[in-house]
From TrEMBL:
Belongs to the 3-hydroxyacyl-CoA dehydrogenase family. Residues 33-212 form the 3-hydroxyacyl-CoA dehydrogenase NAD binding domain. It comes from Streptomyces wuyuanensis. This is 3-hydroxybutyryl-CoA dehydrogenase. Pathway: Lipid metabolism; butanoate metabolism. The record marks H168 as: Important for catalytic activity. Keywords: Oxidoreductase. It comes from the Bacteria. GO terms for biological process: fatty acid beta-oxidation. Residues 215-311 form the 3-hydroxyacyl-CoA dehydrogenase C-terminal domain. GO terms for molecular function: 3-hydroxybutyryl-CoA dehydrogenase activity; NAD+ binding. NCBIfam families: PRK07819.1.
Amino acid sequence: MASRRAPEPYGACRTEISERHDVTDTVAGVSRVGVVGCGQMGAGIAEVCARSGLEVKVAETTGEALEIGRTRLYNSLAKAAERGKISDEEHQATLERLSFTTDLGEFADRDLVIEAVVENEQVKTEIFQVLDQVVTSRDAILASNTSSIPLVKLAVATSRPDQVIGIHFFNPAPVQKLVELIPALTTSEETIKRSEAVVEQVLAKHAIRAQDRSGFVVNALLIPYLLSAIRMFESGIASREDIDNGMELGCAHPMGPLKLSDLIGLDTVASVADSMYAEFKEPLYAAPPLLQRMVDAGRLGRKTGSGFYTYS
């Protein structure tokens, strides 16, 4: 997700994916998946689904964005093959399951659509309204990978609120084991069970359920921790290196909080913080001024080459 501003609307435990399914061997009636957005998260989700045997179509807003996303996805698969994570045969089969488009109308036959675009309520709502019109199957699951936006707001934007659910992956999606399932108040039990079956039986992820509250489970715990580290650095209590080393070497965290913020994306950290603060009015959830200034300056972390650290 590149920015907290809305773009043009559409027309740390690591593991490898261990189960493979043929596209004809459907679970919960899902064999054809659509992924809206091919940024860092969208490409990762598309890779997870395709490597798990599902036929995947990926959509982006423009041809240029689509080519960037396609290159990101193909490079990730190539690295997995080079490192022996997947065989040459699996690599080729995965590529054959992937297709790309700039037209959401091509999602008409999808059994499951996962939206993974910028963390902006208006943009996501518009996408769900379009999906509601173009996806023909009334059994199709419409899911969002949102980190913080209330699922019920997306659900009621459609004529099928019982089919809308949050399926929240973690970065990098191909290796992170956890997925949060977030039902809205309107989500049917059947949709929850089908989504859980796909996540666990097809994608070989571990699903946890969260209430439709800003931050869900993981970010409700993680974001205040990251904001505390940013405030500590902003106030000059410690250097960025000492803050990160303190948590890595003192608490056995695999990555310090400022490095982790850069990996997540500072715009995403700020967006989730804003959403949590708006819902709970807890001062510790408010984004520090330094974080806001860095986002305004376009210093978003790894994806822009500059955040709390500089990346080549």
